[in-house]
Amino acid sequence: MDPTPNKWIVAFSVALGALMATIDSSIINVALPHIRGSLGASIGEITWISSAYIIAMVLVMPLTGVLGALLGQKRLYLSSLILFIVGSVLCGMASSLPMLIFFRIIQGIAAGSLQPSQQAILRQTFPVEEQGVAMSLFAAVIMIGPSLGPTLGGFLTDRFSWPWIFYVNVPVGIIAVFMTWRNVNEPQDIRQANEKKSLLLRKNLDWVGICLLVIGVSTLQVMLEEGPSQEWLHSPRILVLGIFATFSLVFFVVWELYIPHPIIQLRLFQNRAFFSATFIGGLLFALLMGNMFLLPLYMQEILGFNATLSGFLLMPRSLIMIVVTPLVGKIYNQISPAILLGSGVVFFVVGNLYLSTLTAQSSFSDIVIPLLLNGIGLSCLLVPLTTLALSQIPRHELSAAAGLNSFMRQIGSAFGLTFSATFLTQFSMQAREALSGHVTGLRPEVWQQGGTPMQEQLALGRASPMISGSWLQGVVHQVHQQAMMVAFDKVFLLQGLILLIVLPLLFFLRVPPISKKEEVYVEI
User: Fold this and answer.
1) What CA–CA distance (Å, rounded) separates 388 from 392?
2) What pLDDT shows up at residue 522?
3) Residues 6+ apart with CB under 8 A from 274
4) Rounded to whole angstroms, how far apart are CA atoms 350 and 343?
5) CA dist list (Å): 125 to 117, 172, 190, 333, 404
6) What is the CATH number of domain 1-205?
7) Which of 172, 316, 389, 414 has the most CB atoms in a 10 Å sphere around its CB?
8) What are the b/e assignments for 232-271, b being 16+ CB within 10 Å?
9) Is 316 within 8 Å of 331 (Cβ atoms)?
């Protein structure tokens, strides 16, 4: 086996597995109605197919560093790939909802280590002067995967059947396993550091930290998933989940900072570049996932598009990112990261300001233009963030840092979806109440909404206060639609304004120049 394989072959090898993991986080969404009919599940029950995958994935992400030390980085990636393939086959063969949820958990456990491992392997494979290029490849995978998921899922479900959204992972996964086994090598210094760390972990495995992490993250995810539909703390269930999540995570942080051999290296956050880049990355993914949730809803609820057309109109953002992300990676070493990040903020905010002007009569171009601006902004943001986050991390800690970085992005995504849904509901209720106060039978312009028959009655002076059921339904529908439109515009505007708070944090992302010769870290 070639000890120094081509870096591009290594990049492609590890990208396949991580791409499958990101696609599978969203590919199932369009198939849920078909699965529900096939397995006889309720709407509330069927959502656990997605939730179980996300919860399992989030739990494993911060543990990637420990798992990599115990198994070895290459073995961890290969084991995760094989487990993901097995889980995919079992999901496609599931004959009941509990079986499918359980197999999705297996899939999620495997997927949780694929993204962080890919990030760490790319960081160790590419030379320091090409880290921007390496992280542009990683950024492309984690950004494009969720966008392609719904389109691919809809095609496979319509053309074949829902199990094929899982079976499609098998041939891709087998290729990824072979290429990873053949081309990915674990550097000698990383192997030595992991062996030393493994001995310490086996003697001092942090079971308390693992239990606190499982309880805290699981309850937090369930609370965020169900909170909007349960009216948050008005529900005893959500209140209990919130208490468990808060106390478990607080005790987890205190415990991990206290013990000598923690399961997760929270002290990595002492590095200001890692902390700032990870925090901004989590916020960015919160806004991105919220945006991806709102846009299809707007196109279907307000414009009346079907699911296929709505998914198609989201593609320009993915396509522009495929073009721009490698370019940003190439110029990363020639331009200050602060300039790239500032430009990304401007593009994203302008795109969202554009989205906040959408109406019920908006055209295709009114949607595509802001999406293109968003895509350029995301490319300018994500490449520097993923590069800077690991720029000052010792090589033997890269896997742990990448796991924490991925964990914060996923938690940010969960918060983004939850709060976008919550604000959309709240803003629409406020707008509906405000509009309803102006829609009364005493106003002629309200009567004119009844169409030609009602206008003829008005012209003859025979309009009656007795409003027909169909006319009333039409007025109520218009009020509801206008209230939703106002709510969409407000949330889009809020998303853009929230991103402006990252500008002061750019100061902390000024890292010293890195020499082309990387320092080797072996000691723990």
Assistant:
1) 8
2) 31
3) 268, 389, 390, 392, 393, 401, 405
4) 11
5) 12, 23, 12, 17, 20
6) 1.20.1250.20
7) 389
8) eeebeebeebbebbeebbeebeebbeeeeebbbbbebeeb
9) no
One-letter amino acid at 107 equals: Q
Q: What is the 3-state secondary structure (H, E, C) of 89-114?
A: HHHHHCCCHHHHHHHHHHHHHHHHCH
Residue 4 scores a pLDDT above 60 = no
How far apart CA 431 and CA 485 sit, in angstroms, is 9
Query: What are the backbone dihedrals phi and psi of residue 259, each rounded to the nearest 5 degrees, phi first?
Result: -80, 155
Whether 87 and 198 have beta carbons less than 8 Å apart is answered as: no
d(C-alpha 326, C-alpha 231), whole Å: 43
> What ranges do the domains of the chain cover?
1-205, 209-262, 264-442+471-513
Spatial CA neighbour of 288 closest among 321, 242, 335, 330: 321
Confidence tier at 446 by pLDDT (50, 70, 90) = low
Dihedral-angle region of residue 355 (phi above 0 means left; psi in -120 to 50 means alpha; beta otherwise) = alpha
CA 431 to each of CA 197, 438, 478, 487, 492: distance values in angstroms, whole numbers, following the listed order: 57, 11, 12, 7, 15
Distance CA 46, CA 417 (A): 18
**What is the 3-class SS of 153-172, one letter each residue?**
HHHHHHHCCCCHHHHCHHHH
Buried b (16+ CB within 10 A) or exposed e, 296-333: bbbbeebbebeeeebbbbbebbbebbeebbbebbeebb
Number of helices and strands (H, E) in the chain? Answer: 23, 0
Name the pLDDT band for 510 (thresholds 50, 70, 90): low
For residues 399 and 354, which has the higher predicted lDDT (pLDDT)?
A: 354
Q: For the residues of 348-411, what is the DSSP string, one character each? A: HHHHHHHHTT--TT--HHHHHHHHHHHHHHHHHHHHHHHHHHTTTS-GGGHHHHHHHHHHHHHH
- The confidence score (pLDDT) of residue 507 equals 61
Q: In the predicted model, what is the mean pLDDT of residues 380-396?
A: 80
Residue 348 has pLDDT above 80, yes or no: yes
pLDDT above 80: residue 366: yes
> Considering only CA atoms, which of 413, 422, 425, 487 is closest in space to residue 51?
413
- Enter the CATH code of domain 264-442+471-513: 1.20.1250.20
Q: Are the folds of 1-205 and 264-442+471-513 the same?
A: yes
pLDDT at 207: 84
On the CB side of 415, CA atoms within 13 Å amount to 15
| Token representation of residue 304 | 């009346």
Q: Which of 79-93, 175-189, 325-339 has the highest mean pLDDT?
A: 79-93
Structure tokens at 149: 């998921």
Tell me whether residue 7 is exposed, middle or buried, using C-beta atoms within 10 angstroms of its C-beta: 0 to 12, 13 to 18, 19 or more: middle
Token pair 């993901």: residue: 84
